[in-house]
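Subject: Sanity check before I submit

Could someone independently write out the structure tokens for this chain? I want to compare against mine line by line before I put it in a report. The sequence has 245 residues.
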Amino acid sequence: MNNTTPPSSLERLYPADVLQTGTIAGSDTLQLHLERYHYAGKKIAAGIVVDIACGAGYGSHLLATGYGEKINQLLAVDNNAEAIDYANEHYAHSLISFQRSDAFTFHPGIQLNTIISLETIEHLDEPEKFVAHLAAQLAAGGRFIASAPVTPSMDANPYHLQDFTTRRFKRLFLDAGLVEVDSVMQIQPYQPFKLFGKKKGRGEHIRKGLPGYYLKNPGKFWQRIKSLFLDGFNNKYLLVVFEKK
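---
Independent answer below. Compare away.
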């Protein structure tokens, strides 16, 4: 058995690493992730559940252990082999099948009752295609539970390919024929000088050369200024439950 826990990054959290090393904003971010999974668990449409981009597997395990009475089978999917290996080793559960697959080609061949995809869509080149592909696999009455940051993130996080507003995020799912049934906003305060001043753990992955990035992408600079005026030093994350009628 491999007892080494991979390091957390801006892209993927490993709870054991966060608790052992105290990475920058790691504990707060982990708590937000756990709250998202609890919210999703309460909103599950009973039956076959898919957790797309499950990462290290702790969220899938939370769903199986906390809300298993509503789950016949939980398909936990990620395209990262290391994450899936870690999940199988540390978060195995009789309800969960951890699978390595790309979200755009994932197709289990059965209708799904709930799709959960948290903090995934901002990493994608084609979010519209992602939503449409998965929404087509939902059964009538099935639910698509998703979250994304709705304050700017591309400037600080080089792995994010999309910045969403609340309106734009919801539109992706409404255009796929789904209807909104519930939503909640999470707010995470941040300290910019602490975040950029320390290069430890997750902080190592924050975008370097930010002034140069703004020079090349002036629209992102003004987007950040607008967010600072409206939101202050707070990141906002929107969680929405959509349903297929």
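---
OP: Matches mine. For the report I'm noting this point. The chain has one domain: 15-244.
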